[in-house]
Write a structure and sequence with these properties.
alpha/beta, Rossmann fold
């Protein structure tokens, strides 16, 4: 039986299914659940805006933080560029990450998980997930798989693949 489950989420639909599965397992076995999110400054603004808009995260965070998110409309990756982000960019990416974690934790509690903790990290997504899971003492990692396709995955790598290859515990990948 598992003693602690870690689930990674980026707010996507696939990650939501991973949160649901991890929460169902944690609730069934009375296992603590840690939910982690990797703050990504390297994503294109289009990808983050699309993902966040689908979940209505941008609107919610904009309202609750009184932050002007108009800078998200750029098309050159200005908001989530890897190069030294401004204070506003860091704040926006952090607020979106916090909202993703809050929603995931609320969902886990709805599914009956008694002990839910959350955390975020920066850096390479796979390495950050592995580090957060290890810090949490997880003996199972659950994460979504985006399905990049064989060719693109071979060229670019896959977060799920890297986590699976380097984890010291059970890894469950949700499609």
């Amino acid at each position: 039986m598992k003693q602690h489950i870690f689930v990674a989420t980026d707010g996507s639909e696939t990650a939501g299914r991973a949160v649901d599965l991890a929460a169902e397992l944690a609730a069934k076995f009375g296992t603590p659940l840690t939910i982690g999110h990797v703050l990504r400054f390297g994503r294109s603004s289009e990808e983050m805006a699309r993902m966040a808009d689908v979940e209505h995260i941008v609107r919610h965070v904009s309202k609750t933080s009184n932050t002007d998110f108009q800078i998200m409309t750029g098309t050159t990756g200005d908001l989530f560029a890897d190069t030294r982000p401004s204070g506003d960019v860091v704040r926006i990416v952090t607020l979106i990450g916090e909202e993703i974690l809050r929603r995931s934790a609320d969902r886990a509690k709805e599914l009956g998980v008694e002990t839910v903790t959350t955390g975020s990290a920066q850096g390479d997504p796979a390495d950050a997930i592995l580090d957060m899971a290890k810090e949490a003492g997880a003996d199972m990692i659950v994460l979504g798989h985006r399905g990049l396709g064989r060719w693109r995955e071979m060229l670019l790598g896959s977060v799920a693949h890297k986590v699976n290859q380097h984890a010291d515990c059970t890894v469950v990948t949700v499609r």
